[in-house]
Write a structure and sequence with these properties.
Strand content: under 5%
Structural class: mainly alpha
Number of strands: 0
CATH superfamily: lambda repressor-like DNA-binding domains
Radius of gyration: 13 Å
Largest sheet: none
CATH architecture: Orthogonal Bundle
CATH class: Mainly Alpha
Number of domains: 1
Amino acid sequence: MRKSSHYGEVNTQLGQTLRWLRVDAGMPQRELAEILGTHQSTISETENGKRPIRIDFAERWAAVFDMQPWVTFNRISTKKKRSRS
């Protein structure tokens, strides 16, 4: 597997997890963007796996929803393990 393919998959899975956090909280993308000091398009591209996710951005995103960043990443590794079974 090529590195870019792997990173794309990780970005997609992390984006889906971050979207789940936002939607579960009933928060529109625009509101989250304002809290994080970014644009709504950045939130959308991140959730759709079209934008690489920096660790500090994922940490701030998780903090908005009172979660530890490792919980966010753990959700991804758990999904990967299930899909391999």
